[in-house]
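Re-run with default settings, no changes from the original entry. Doing this only to confirm the output is reproducible before filing.
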Amino acid sequence: MSIRLKRILVAKDLSKESSNVIRYALELGSKFDAEIHVLHVMPTVDHAVLNMVAISMGPDRLAELNAMNEKDLGEQTRRQLNVILEEETRRGDVQLSKPPHIEVHHGEAAPMILDVADRLDADMIILGSHTKGKLHYAFLGSVAEKILRKTHRTVVIVPPGVGH
């Protein structure tokens, strides 16, 4: 059996540990000459909160402000991810045949990650895990657990501190 990786989806947040996840994906992508796709999913505001704000502000004005806010946050996030990718590419002396692709979406993390993985036909999904205190090793994060239960793709979970 030979392992082939054409497309790797790395789903990440903007925590300090996320650079390790990016570095891991870049190095793996370099070794397998795979495309790297970086995904950040921004949470959406709860519908109950939106309804309360819409009552006082008006639904049209709220929709307009929400769209502007999502666009601005998406652009800021994309810039942050570009900086992290450049730093980690230099730091790891990684040689990629194609620059990584960045996607920023709004929604629920697990379904969005699964949808993007399907659309890209990703061979692997790479996620970071978070330190959650003493129970860290007993339980995975809810996003990672949902993805593991619902995907047929290889999933790699990079724990904090890997690559330091």
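The helical segments are 18-32, 47-57, 59-92, 109-120, 142-150. Residues 7-158 form a domain with the Rossmann fold fold (CATH 3.40.50.620).
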